[in-house]
Design goal:
mainly beta, Ribosomal Protein L9, domain 2, four-stranded mixed β-sheet, 3 helices, 20 strands, rod-shaped
């Protein structure tokens, strides 16, 4: 300072934006599950691209989820079909977020997995030659689906069984799906469901023979029976005929 007149001019000191990379996590839901998901904390930061300088409190506000076909992320009315979709959103919760950060949000996967659908087929007992009406119950139908809408045509007997032959046929009453009879379930049988089938059992009894039921002597329609029958009178009033 003795030998120089010193002038110090101030320099610029710039603070540029930090990179903030937000990777949205995978969201999973079951087909027809209408519960709202918590998207707000479903994220991770990219390598060397997270919050800095003591900042915290980042929140993701989901605005679109491809797994939802009707409704919003907060009020789901109907899910999409089973498959893999994407969800996206915006970031908030950090002071001066967009002023201090270059924000990049990478979409997350949003998967819809099959719902469980169980058929319980009723057991049936019939007499030879008497047609049966096969019935059952479906548990787990969801998302506004109907049995007819997903291709279920009712319940039927396996073609390997002859209902004219007396016997017990275990697990031979199944479910008609798209025109084919199924006695067991499995993945992929119905697009949006994991199918389980509890098949029914058919019991065929011998047909009724009146001659065997009214046996009064050593042979049907014998003399003893004839005498007893003659003691009874039958009046068919509706037909105008008396016997």
């Amino acid at each position: 300072n003795t030998n120089y007149d010193v002038t110090v001019n101030a320099g610029k000191s710039d603070v540029t934006k930090a990179n903030l990379v937000v990777n949205l996590k995978d969201i999973n839901r079951i087909y027809g599950n209408l519960e709202a998901k918590d998207y707000s904390n479903a994220f991770t930061f990219g390598n060397n691209a997270g919050l800095v300088n003591g900042d915290n409190g980042l929140v993701i506000n989901a605005d679109k989820d491809g797994a939802i076909t009707e409704g919003s992320v907060s009020d789901v009315k109907k899910t999409n079909n089973v498959g893999s979709y994407e969800w996206n959103g915006t970031a908030s919760g950090v002071d001066n977020l967009n002023q201090n950060y270059t924000v990049q949000i990478n979409k997350g996967k949003s998967d819809v997995t099959p719902a469980k659908l169980t058929f319980v087929v009723d057991d049936k007992t019939i007499t030879q030659g008497v047609p049966a009406e096969y019935t059952g119950k479906a548990n787990g139908l969801t998302n506004g689906d109907t049995l007819a809408g997903i291709g279920v045509g009712g319940y039927e007997l396996d073609s390997s069984v002859n209902p004219l032959i007396v016997g017990v046929y275990e697990d031979k009453i199944g479910v008609l799906i798209n025109g084919s009879l199924h006695l067991t379930g499995g993945d992929g049988l119905l697009k949006n469901y994991k199918l389980e089938i509890d098949p029914g059992t058919l019991t065929v009894l011998a047909s009724f023979n009146p001659a065997d039921d009214y046996w009064f002597g050593t042979a049907p329609w014998d003399k003893e029976r004839n005498l007893r029958e003659r003691k009874a009178e039958f009046h068919y009033v509706a037909g105008g005929m008396s016997l």
